[in-house]
Design a protein that fits this description.
Membrane-bound Lytic Murein Transglycosylase D, Chain A; Serine Threonine Protein Phosphatase 5, Tetratricopeptide repeat; mainly alpha
Length: 245
């Protein structure tokens, strides 16, 4: 009788432990059940790639483990944003979490495809010569590391610029009043920097340049809703308002 009681208690403790693990959101198996992840997949299927990218990046930032989101972001970078280096980074994050799943074979093939896409942007045809292939892999790794380092530096510079006050926005809240001097700016007014759209820019790329993270693209989109009907309405030379965080 006592044995049955202890068995039931032990079983109940195990259930409580598993439930608590599920609630903390760290379980890899629960990622596909995440409402944001599912919303990102719907946008992906419907061709709303910019919005899907932002949602998957938000899932990655909010979870400790998000291999499925890394995989989707990698696919977006490879198939729709022509950024093979970023694609490789996210594919490798997927493989770090799930190195032995059946899907890992396909992911490794996509990494090879991304490497070849990157090689096509280099002078000559480096993959045609087996003797230079290893040199290319070393170069690819170096460029990936430099790319990530530059993104971090850009984010740090943007934060410093915001902290010091940009020239274009430093007097935005000042109001001249009769009798000379300036009235104190109203507190709570949003402050903005300006960014001129360049060739090849997307909202996620602009977000990375200005904030060091692509996840803030939606904030930029909302700040410019008067001139952008959709996230893909960007035009070269267009001046965007960039909210100061």
């Amino acid at each position: 009788m006592l044995g049955k009681i202890f068995f039931k208690i032990g079983f109940a403790v195990c259930l409580l432990f598993l439930c608590s693990c599920d609630r903390n959101g760290d379980g890899i198996g629960l990622e596909k059940e995440d409402e944001k992840f599912q919303k990102g997949q719907r946008f992906f299927r419907n061709g709303r790639y910019q919005e899907a990218m932002g949602i998957f990046l938000n899932v990655i930032e909010s979870r400790r483990d998000a291999p499925e989101s890394h995989l989707e972001v990698g696919r977006l970078y490879l198939e729709h944003f022509n950024d093979p280096l970023a694609a490789i980074y996210h594919f490798k994050k997927f493989l770090e979490a799930k190195p032995d799943v059946e899907q890992s074979v396909i992911v490794r093939q996509m990494i090879e495809r991304a490497k070849k896409n990157f090689a096509q942007t280099l002078p000559g045809r480096p993959f045609d010569d087996d003797t230079t292939r290893l040199d290319l892999m070393d170069l690819l790794k170096q460029v990936q590391e430099e790319n990530l380092s530059l993104k971090k530096q850009i984010g740090q510079l943007a934060q410093r610029k915001q902290a010091g006050g940009a020239v274009k926005t430093s007097n935005a809240g000042n109001i001249f009043v009769p009798g000379g001097g300036r009235a104190k700016p109203k507190e709570g007014l949003p402050k903005f920097n300006e960014y001129t759209v360049a060739t090849g820019d997307t909202l996620t790329k602009i977000s990375t340049k200005m904030y060091g993270s692509a996840a803030q693209w939606e904030m930029i989109f909302k700040a410019n809703s008067d001139s952008l009907r959709t996230p893909n309405d960007l035009k070269v030379g267009q001046v965007l308002k960039i909210p100061q965080k």
